[in-house]
Write a structure and sequence with these properties.
By secondary structure, this protein is an alpha/beta fold. The protein contains 12 helices and 9 strands. The protein folds into 2 domains: about 200 residues, Spore Coat Polysaccharide Biosynthesis Protein SpsA, Chain A; about 90 residues, no CATH class. Strands 1, 2, 3, 4, 5, 6, 7, 8 and 9 form a 9-stranded mixed β-sheet that branches.
Length: about 325
């Protein structure tokens, strides 16, 4: 008889409050060990995790924080405690859905070349704000073989170890970067047609959405700088679109307006683009897809400026 599959979980969080309690309580019995990595919480997160039976790692906050660094710390603690075959990474504002871990583990067992299995992440309150709804749309990625996963995924420990885990220097986009390196080693990444987690974006203000989009632009530019060469071309198209729509066209219109006010008519290209995208995505999503190019461009430009000056960028937090 084959040995039973050993599954652990790594949860990261900071000041998640009741969300973390829900996250811990939703971990199924098939997961035999849970490591919670806390990043300087001032609420009762550490106590809540300990009370739930999780091993707690308090991240050293004197060093620059990234989610990737927290995941690595949790992963290192998990594998140091004994053999583990699969690890479920979870953000502390998420809850695993019934049957997910069992389904994903079965898939990884049946698919030995697969390093990562992720499912459908949904927003808990998609109708609370338009920003939550935008997140829910974002999570709805195609089913099947994929290029990347998000923060929640079941991964093969052997594969994660082979590529050295997450890149701790990335302030965003650490999961796609990990997946690029996994695929370069011959592993595959899959999105399964199964409910995986409930997520609480808790975005109620425009400023939160703007910061999140700016962080995405930063991740696009950094990812393209690292893995943009052929054949991967990682996030090259996303970076170019952000810079074209969010910086290039506005710059051309402003320069043209210095010669003639008629150049301002060029701004009509934005509502035209909204209408074009609305045919596929609906008006609400199309409007924010176009608008997002401005903060994305700012994030991308900031990355390149800091790259030239050698300055490290801190986190871009939206909540």
């Amino acid at each position: 008889m084959a040995d039973p599959i050993r599954i652990g979980a790594v949860i990261i969080g900071r000041n998640e409050g009741a969300r973390l309690v829900g996250c811990l309580n939703a971990v199924p019995e098939i997961v035999t060990r849970v490591v919670y990595v806390d990043s300087g919480s001032t609420d009762n997160s550490v106590q809540a995790a300990s009370d739930a039976g999780a091993e707690v790692v308090n991240l050293d906050m004197t060093q620059p924080f990234t989610a990737a660094r927290a995941r690595n710390a949790g992963f290192d603690r998990l594998i140091a405690g004994g053999p583990v075959d699969f690890v479920q990474f979870i953000d502390g504002d998420c809850e695993l859905q019934p049957g997910w871990v069992e389904t994903a583990a079965a898939f990884l067992i049946e698919t030995p070349e697969a390093a990562v299995a992720c499912g459908r992440r949904r927003e808990r309150f998609p109708d609370a704000t338009v920003y939550n709804r935008l997140c829910d749309w974002e999570w709805d990625t195609p089913v099947g073989r994929a290029k990347a996963c998000g923060g929640d995924a079941l991964m093969r420990v052997e594969a994660v170890q082979q590529v050295g885990g997450y890149n701790p220097d990335l302030i965003a986009g650490e999961e796609p970067d990990l997946c690029v390196r996994l695929r370069a080693k011959g592993w595959t990444v899959w999105r399964l047609d199964h409910e995986m987690t409930l997520h609480d974006a808790a975005m109620t203000r425009f400023g939160q959405w703007w910061k999140r989009a700016k962080r995405a632009g930063h991740a696009f530019a950094e990812g393209a700088a690292m893995h943009g060469a052929p054949p991967e071309r990682h996030w090259v198209a996303e970076t170019r679109r952000a810079l074209f729509w969010g910086a290039g066209i506005p710059a051309l219109i402003v320069l043209g307006a210095l010669a003639t006010p008629l150049a301002l008519l060029g701004l009509v290209i934005y509502p035209v683009q909204v209408m074009r995208l609305a045919r596929q995505h609906g008006m609400e999503r199309a409007f924010f897809l176009v608008l997002s190019k401005f903060p994305e461009a700012l994030g991308a430009l900031e990355y390149h400026l800091r790259r030239l000056t050698g300055k490290r960028r801190g986190l871009i937090e939206y909540k």
